[in-house]
DNA sequence: TCAGAAATGGAATGAATATTCTAATCGCAG
DNA sequence: CTGCGATTAGAATATTCATTCCATTTCTGA
């Protein structure tokens, strides 16, 4: 009733409820048991819904929140909601908050701190990658590459390193690769020979490089099987693609690490090689 | 507008949004992009909040929901909430178990298994990186780059993606960069203008690219301050370097992920930018 | 350039919601 | 059995919210 409950984590709240459980009145104990058993209902439901499911009148729910030191049900609900967002987005929220705060502090500006920040960012990007990429897509992608005579790679601007890396690995594995980099003329000319017998791997993140957005539909229209690696289903290289890998939470261009797409393309290339035997 | 949207999963909704995106009007497209980027905000926020964060009037949000075939915002929100609920149920343990089982199942030859192997390799590479790089070296490196007029980047063969990535980030930050890639002539000519006022970042791993081994000593001899990123103190770009970053345990060329050097160069670039203010 | 159509923004509206208030009930000591 | 304080339930209330409506602006095609 007296504690400051301003910023409380879900686990702390669980502890507080368990601790005070004995001291609560009958109805309030009943509610305590319900909310610990059904935290998701509390997070997303209204007072009336929670009241009905736990078999108490709505006002009792509000009294329960008051007894725990919250200003009302809405305030308590925030804690239950934080549990949901923590479960679904281990990277996103924490990353934004951390970057914001560290960016301004003196500590965050020292190169060593910057490095450790990028390392942990890369870690979470890898976790997200392994969760969001499904076996079906990878199988489809390697199948396309296996049948391709020549493999065309389209990745410009910030995505160029990914394309060059994939080119390097594929060539090491003996595949015929055409890297569309615009050197010595237009990309159009470089890609002119691509047919339905070949394959295209396109990589593009915001802001989508104009040439990529322009060339991609042309190759799709010519019937070239296409694997897209991008950060949004709305990107210009999604429509018409045979396989799409979506890599979420790419930070702004200067801050993105490319760790996730680099890993992905390498897994594609090596997986292709292993499956071929 | 016509589909029955009764029971729709979050992934299905994503697909539907992406599919109709082009057919939507300007404002609605803007909202489509926002909701795909901030699904959590949509799940937990009110119409007014979502409207404000996405920079549109509340009525537009409702029209967006209608355009997708929902009866209103509340109906659409249910789908976004289902994502939160799904994310919290199979918690940490289940995810780990899934990775473990996938790793062993039916050989490690399936593409999905290959990906998870690269991911965990990359994870450990990042840990090693943050342990082996010391603040003193990073400070020295950023100091060199801060004083440099032009920054020359030398990374060929398998290291080329690292060089292009560093070039991209440095240019985004407004630095003058010369990427030594041998396009349109010899690398020697490209590097001819480098002086003691400039700086060189050299990246090379086994087997050391011949051109790199040849060019590096020349620039050192001309007194160009040099930062080397390599995998052994015996590599040809160590002797004479002002700062050396040694990244150990690099696998054979085709299998290496470049995750560690990518992170390192980015931390260098951003650290340089933050320290400059 | 103009007319018609589509889209947009903002205010108005009515529903839904959390909260408060009060009368009734319960528990309990004397 | 009685009276008092704590507790409760449900109605009343004030607030917040989603939705609708309409005047205005912005596209589109001739």
TrEMBL record, chains A, B:
Signal sequence segment:
none
Transmembrane region(s)? none
Q: Which UniProt keywords apply?
A: DNA-binding, Transcription, Transcription regulation
Classification via InterPro entries: Homeodomain-like_sf, HTH_RpiR, RpiR-like, RpiR-like_SIS, SIS_dom, SIS_dom_sf, WH-like_DNA-bd_sf
Where in this chain does the record put each SIS domain?
Answer: 140-277
Under the GO molecular function aspect, what terms does this record hold?
carbohydrate derivative binding; DNA binding; DNA-binding transcription factor activity
What's a Pfam family this protein contains? HTH_6
Domain HTH rpiR-type, chain residue ranges per copy: 11-87
A Gene Ontology biological process noted in the UniProt record is: carbohydrate derivative metabolic process
Q: What protein name does the entry list?
A: Transcriptional regulator
Question: Which species is listed as the source?
Answer: Bradyrhizobium japonicum
């Amino acid at each position: 009733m007296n504690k400051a409950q301003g910023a409380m984590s879900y686990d702390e709240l669980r502890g507080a409820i368990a601790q005070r459980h004995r001291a609560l009145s009958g109805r309030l104990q009943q509610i305590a048991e319900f909310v610990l058993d059904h935290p998701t209902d509390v997070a997303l439901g209204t007072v009336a819904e929670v009241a009905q499911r736990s078999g108490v009148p709505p006002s009792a729910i509000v009294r329960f929140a008051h007894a725990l030191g919250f200003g009302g049900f809405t305030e308590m609900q925030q804690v239950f909601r934080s549990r949901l967002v923590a479960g679904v987005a281990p990277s996103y929220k924490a990353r934004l908050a951390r970057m914001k705060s560290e960016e301004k502090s003196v500590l965050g500006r020292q190169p060593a701190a910057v490095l450790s920040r990028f390392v942990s960012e890369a870690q979470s990007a890898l976790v997200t990658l392994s969760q969001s990429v499904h076996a079906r897509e990878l199988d489809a992608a390697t199948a396309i590459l296996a049948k391709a005579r020549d493999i065309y790679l389209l990745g410009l601007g910030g995505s160029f390193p990914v394309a060059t890396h994939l080119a390097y690995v594929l060539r090491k594995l003996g595949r015929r690769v055409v890297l569309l980099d615009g050197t010595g003329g237009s990309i159009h000319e470089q890609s002119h020979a691509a047919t339905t017998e070949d394959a295209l791997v396109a990589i593009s993140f915001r802001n989508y490089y104009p040439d990529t957005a322009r060339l991609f539909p042309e190759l799709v229209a010519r019937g070239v099987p296409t694997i897209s690696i991008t950060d949004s289903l709305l990107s210009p290289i999604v429509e018409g693609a045979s396989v799409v890998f979506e890599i979420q939470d790419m930070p702004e261009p200067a801050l993105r690490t490319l760790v996730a797409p680099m890993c992905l393309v390498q897994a594609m290339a090596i997986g292709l090689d292993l499956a071929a035997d």
